Amino acid sequence: MTVTTGSAGTLSSTCRPIALTALVLHCCLHEGLAQKEQKFELDIPRVTVEELERNVTLRTGLHAYVLHGFAHKWKAMNWTLDYLMGKIPFEWVDYYPNNMRDVSSKPYLWKFDKAVREFQIPKEFRTGKPKYMQIRLGLRGWKRLKKDFVPKPLPEVFWDDDEWIGSCMSQDGKVDQSAINNFFVTNQWKFLLIGEEGTSMFFHKDGTAASSWQVQLVGKKRWTLCPNSESQLLHTELDTYNPDYSKFPRFAQAACGQVTVSPGELLYYPAYWWHHTLQLESPSISYTGALVGVEADRSDLGTGRKPHMRFYADLQEKCARCWKKGVSQRQCDDISVKWAGAAPPPLRSVCDEYLPKCLELWSVHAKDLHGRKSSGHAEL
Ligand SMILES: *[C@@H]1O[C@H](CO)[C@@H](O)[C@H](O)[C@H]1NC(C)=O
Ligand SMILES: *[C@@H]1O[C@H](CO)[C@@H](O)[C@H](O)[C@H]1NC(C)=O
Predict the structure, then answer these.
(1) Which of 67, 97, 173, 219 has the fewest Cβ atoms within 10 Å of its own Cβ atom?
(2) Tens-place pLDDT, residues 75-96
(3) Residue 114 Ramachandran class (φ > 0 left, ψ -120 to 50 alpha, else beta)
């Protein structure tokens, strides 16, 4: 039942007009008294690697948490903008000179070295609007940076594409590098995020059912997180840091949490969770990777229960817009032809040949991690 208006003691119009039994009265009084503001009561625990290893609940991958105490050996902890400019000057950037607060914010597509030079313009020459950029790493950029994220904590929990992509995206024993690069850039699989204090990426959930881990390297960042199950109470125009309850009264009822992540900490959240970020310091530098095949079964996905199956369906839906069975001509536009640096369409080989092979690997891994426990059949 939805009660969006009405003060305590009045029956709001959304209550079903049936006999005023004590029960009905109780329900409406109760909801009439329901909180009018979001309290962010969803707990996002901070755990060490050892605590995560032992915690069966968190290891389902179905909860958000912050992991700390593992990154001191990472070279990435010493990253600076100049270091990154030397490593990946060729990568493409979505550059937002005036923040990315709204869905309608439009980026410039620039090479990383140009974007960083612009970002570093001294304060006195600036427009006053804080800047934000997202770098979609391709395979070449990733190869240059991946050594900076060693050693990875709990490799079976943070089981990423380094462990599977070369096995399923290969032909005749040869790894298909261009297919892997295509998978990375079309799915925004690996992202570097750099922003000034006050920048924000608007509230949203991702378009594909992959879970995410984001490690904070420089500066601090605030997060709002809400599970997919709350989607009907949420909206991309909602500013969770300054909610307009006259426009989004239902936000008050959503089970959401907030957490601040500091350098050396990693935030994990499951597929389709809503998230809203706010950089608290300049610069803030973080890296986000996506994961598939690490979550247990869940009940909020509609028809299926397996997140990796849903992820596969999301990708095949994108593929179906570009490739039709028996038709060799591509059916979708390639905007990267017109705008250099924009994401190209998925390759046919990725859609038709490689993804089905990858799905098998994801299934095996999810089963190894969660198999019997999450199947619903208790093992005696
Ligand atoms: C697992 O972590 C959650 C969240 O911090 C906590 O509530 C729960 O008690 C932990 N479970 C165990 C068995 O430690
Ligand atoms: C980071 O820089 C500090 C200071 O230069 C150095 O002592 C440390 O070894 C570096 N850390 C890594 C992991 O490279």
Answers:
(1) 173
(2) 999 999 999 999 999 999 999 8
(3) alpha
**Burial label, 310 (beta-carbon count in 10 A; 0-12, 13-18, 19+):** buried
Contacts for 365 with CB less than 8 Å, ≥ 6 apart:
156, 159, 164, 293, 294
Which of 43, 52, 58 to mutate to test ligand 1, by most ligand atoms within 8 A of the CB atom? 58
CA pair distance 187, 318, nearest whole angstrom:
10
Sequence-distant (≥ 6) Cβ neighbours of residue 286 within 8 angstroms: 192, 193, 214, 215, 216, 217, 218, 221, 261
CA of 196 to the centre of ligand 2 (A): 24
Place of tokens 């003691």: 9
Q: How far is CA 62 from the centre of its chain?
A: 13
3-class state of residue 26 by DSSP: helix
The encoded tokens of residue 180 equal: 């892997």
C-alpha 137/C-alpha 146 separation (Å) is 11
In terms of DSSP bridges, do strands 257-261 and 108-111 run parallel, antiparallel, or are they unpaired?
A: unpaired
Mean predicted lDDT score pLDDT of the chain: 89
Percent of the chain with pLDDT over 90: 78
Rounded-to-5 percentages of helix, strand, coil across the chain: 35, 20, 45
**C-beta of 73 in contact with ligand 2 (< 6 A):** yes
Cα angle: 243, vertex 244, 249; to 5 degrees: 95
Q: What is the pLDDT of residue 126?
A: 63
Contact between residue 250 and residue 1 where contact means Cβ atoms under 8 Å apart? no
Q: pLDDT tens across 243-299, in order?
A: 999 999 999 999 999 999 999 999 999 999 999 999 999 999 999 999 999 999 999
- Determine whether the shortest distance from the Cβ of 58 to ligand 1 is under 6 A: yes
| Distance in Å, CA 65 to ligand 1 centroid | 11
Complete DSSP assignment for 60-89: TT-S-EEEES-GGG-GGGG--HHHHHHH-T
**Which residues are CB-contacts of 199 (< 8 A; sequence separation ≥ 6)?**
96, 99, 100, 101, 130, 131, 132, 278, 279, 284
Distances (CA, A) of 170 to 15, 38, 165, 210: 58, 48, 8, 22
Widest pairwise Cα distance in the chain:
72
